[in-house]
Amino acid sequence: MTRGPMGYLHVYTGNGKGKTTCCVGLAVRAAGAGERVAFLQFDKGFEGKNEHYHERSILRSLPNVDLHFFGMERMMPDGKFRFANVPEDFEQAKAGLEEAKRIIREGKHFLVVCDEAITCVQTKLYTEDDLMGLVRDFRANPTCDLVLSGRGALPGLIEAADLVSDVTLIKHYFYQGVEARKGIEF
């Protein structure tokens, strides 16, 4: 069986739960098919002790998945989430874009996933033009498929994409007071 054409831009956006889960599922599928995957998580840091994003456990166990994460830890020791940006968040987000560009130029991966890269525009960690710079670099050298996820994809990105899924929130138990649960939400 042949690979088929390469160079498609996938966008998973919307206000619903499941964008990262879509990215992980696609990465696992590609890895299961024997392909090499680069999985970059934006604004989901890791301080080296406490893992708050448990999808990384399975991704780390797959030999053909290269996992990269950018951003400062947002989970505080008391379990609360830090929403405010600090200077390092901006530096890390831009470093993530540069790493994604480098990986695409290198041409060694079948799939490059940039989880929460879209959200970084919404939270002003970088500009829409910064993100579209990644898309332009990808289009100039389409050696893989590129996946971008996060809330609030802007019209220019939607227009540039080959596949767009809008994950829509219809109902969520969070609004009944249920807190995020290990193994389900993180």
Quick tags:
186 residues; alpha/beta; Rossmann fold; 6-stranded parallel sheet; 6 helices; 34% helix; globular
Please render the helix and strand layout as text:
Layout (H helix, E strand, L loop, with lengths): L8 E5 L5 H14 L4 E6 L12 H7 L3 E6 L16 H20 L4 E5 L3 H4 L5 H13 L4 E5 L5 H6 L2 E4 L20
Helix pairs in contact: 3-5
What is the level 1 CATH name? Alpha Beta
Quaternary status: single chain
Q: Quote the beta fraction.
A: 15-25%
N-to-C CA distance: 35 Å
Beta-strand segment tally? 6
Architecture in CATH?
3-Layer(aba) Sandwich
Supply the number of structural domains: 1
Helix content range: 25-40%
CATH homologous superfamily label = P-loop containing nucleotide triphosphate hydrolases
User: Which geometry do the CA atoms define?
Assistant: globular
- Backbone CA Rg: 16 Å
Spell out the helices and strands N to C.
EHEHEHEHHEHE
Major β-sheet annotation: 6 strands, parallel
CATH topology: Rossmann fold
Strand order of the largest sheet: 3-2-4-5-1-6
Category from helices, strands and their pairing: alpha/beta
Structure description:
With 186 residues, this protein is α/β, with parallel strands linked by helices. The protein has 6 helices and 6 strands. It has a single domain, classed as Rossmann fold, CATH 3.40.50.300. The chain has a 6-stranded parallel sheet, with helices on both faces. The mean pLDDT is 88.
